[in-house]
Design a protein that fits this description.
Length: 94
């Protein structure tokens, strides 16, 4: 089994929204030694901790930031910055 789980699935897992069957499945995947998913799970575990503190908090399932936090570097904290200005980085200034 080489299939990985996606971020929304880990979110559901840490929030306790999944069935026992699915939880077992994902747990076994971690035990199989998948470093990638282990990191994702760890990251979302921390994420859920503060999510629980927010009544009625619902992470946008298919929002861009959800997948944006998953980088090749590893997982970065999901900061909701408004820094989305288009900067012409390749164009010479002046
Ligand atoms: Zn995996």
């Amino acid at each position: 089994m080489t299939e990985h789980f996606s971020s929304p699935q880990w979110v559901d897992l840490v929030r306790g929204l999944l069935s026992e069957d699915r939880k077992t499945e994902m747990d076994q995947h971690l035990r199989a030694g998948c470093e990638e998913c282990r990191e994702a799970f760890a990251a979302w575990s921390g994420f859920a901790t503060f999510a629980e503190a927010e009544p009625g908090f619902e992470p946008p399932r298919e929002a861009a930031w959800l997948s944006a936090v998953m980088t090749e570097d590893g997982i970065k904290p999901a900061t909701r910055t408004a820094d989305r200005h288009s900067r012409p980085s390749s164009e010479p200034q002046g």
